[in-house]
Design a protein that fits this description.
This protein is of the alpha+beta class. Helix content is about 45%, strand content about 10%. The radius of gyration is 26 Å and the shape is elongated. The chain starts with a strand and ends with a helix. One of its GO terms (cellular component) is cytosol.
Length: about 400
């Protein structure tokens, strides 16, 4: 490896790795309270990463709790205080992992895009994935106030970064191609319905035994493998890893803890699949963890918006069937609570659930698993029947 040049991913030892950047250098200036650390080659590093030099400099300040200053015309990027070069190199690696590398393929060939919902997305030119950054990090506030600029399409330099043509143009926000509700309207609806759903769930009377999930490496690996085959049995499945369904499935799994309901919906809009029943199935499998019952209130209003037909409902049930039957079999006893939550959110209708509960199907899982899931759902199906009986008795009494 040439002196002064390192792999952008320093965990990669391959000397033929195509993505390279200059080794970060520092210069300590001043004394006493005026001491500061200057990064003389920050512009060169940032160019290799296709990011503004202000971003990694500000990131250093966020992580070190130090003030930063920039003189872009003078090409000076400063962090107050005296800081060791090795420490800043470690922080640069962290910045690259969080704000440069694609979360899917770990390739640094990404652009930052800010959506209309103020979500920062890494748009990967290598694999086509769009993955959100951690919006809890303080740097995201700085990025939103100082939007990224994306270079025009250029040839790659020998060091693997984008060749500098000195001409930048702002990245446009993703357009809302659905012609549906505005962001503000959707946000208000989701918040309102989520609050109502939380109240309804608090009064749910179904009781099942508590469960635990196997979190061993082998079990996690098995669940990931099962998720990878989430297109099983669907008439319009697409096994291509770059299909929109594969993309949203991976994205949902990676961002389930940080993403909001509206962010998931907007991501589906970006892919043009927010109205597809297949999307409902994939999200039902990928968006939740072992704590699905507690997580449903967060995302249920989004499912309510997406589920607009009986076919959508069947896809939702199929996704849940695979979620508990294949990905998390320890959660099969919880299926009554899960169905109740979606029923309370008006994402599932009584007749559709009853028909599903009485017809074993091999469309999403094998026959034995399908039987187990439906057997476990009997308390909820019984509750639906009893609720109907109570309504009929009330009607008869009122007639008398």
């Amino acid at each position: 490896m040439a002196s002064g040049v390192v792999n952008i991913r320093r965990d990669v030892d391959d000397k033929f790795y195509r993505y390279r950047m200059p080794l970060l250098n520092i210069k300590i200036e001043g004394k006493g309270n005026g001491i500061k650390t200057v990064v003389p080659n920050m512009s060169d590093i940032a160019r290799a990463l296709s990011r503004p030099p202000t971003y990694p400099t500000k990131f250093f300040g966020c992580e070190l709790g130090a003030q930063t200053s920039f003189d872009e015309k003078g090409d000076r990027y400063i962090v107050n205080g005296a800081h060791d070069a090795s420490r800043l190199r470690e922080l640069l690696d962290t910045f690259i992992d969080k704000f440069v590398l694609c979360a899917s393929c770990k390739n640094p060939e990404t652009d930052l895009i800010i959506t209309k919902g103020d979500v920062i997305i890494r748009d990967c030119k290598a694999c086509g994935q769009r993955t959100a950054v951690d919006m809890r990090h303080k740097l995201t506030t700085f990025i939103l106030k100082n939007p990224p600029k994306t270079p025009r399409k250029t040839k790659k330099s020998k060091e693997g970064g984008a060749a500098d043509n000195g001409n930048y143009s702002p990245t446009a926000d993703d357009a809302d191609a659905s012609g549906g509700e505005s962001d503000d309207e959707l946000t208000r609806r989701i918040k309102t319905e989520a609050a109502e759903l939380a109240t309804n769930l608090a009064s749910t009377t179904l009781k099942e035994d508590e469960w635990t999930a196997d979190t061993s490496a082998e079990a996690v690996k098995a669940r990931v493998k099962a998720l990878a085959s989430n297109t099983q049995g669907d008439d319009d499945s697409d096994d291509d890893v770059n299909s929109p369904y594969s993309q949203i499935g991976r994205w949902a799994e990676e961002n389930r803890y940080s993403a909001t309901a509206i962010e998931v919906y907007k991501y589906a809009q970006d892919l043009g699949v927010e109205r597809k029943h297949k999307t409902v199935q994939v999200l039902a499998q990928a968006l939740f963890s072992e704590d699905i019952v507690a997580e449903i209130p967060k995302f249920a209003p989004m499912f309510t918006k997406m589920v607009t037909s009986e076919r959508h409902q069947k896809s939702l049930l199929g996704g849940l069937e695979r979620f508990v039957g294949v990905l998390h079999p320890d959660l099969i006893p919880a299926i009554p609570k899960i169905l109740m939550a979606f029923y309370q959110a008006d994402a599932l209708e009584e007749e559709v659930v009853k028909q599903w509960g009485t017809h074993v199907s091999k469309k999403y899982v094998d026959k034995d698993t399908s039987k187990k899931v439906r057997k476990a759902s009997e308390p909820f199906l019984k509750w639906l029947d009893e609720a109907d009986d109570d309504e009929e008795e009330d009607e008869e009494e009122s007639e008398e």
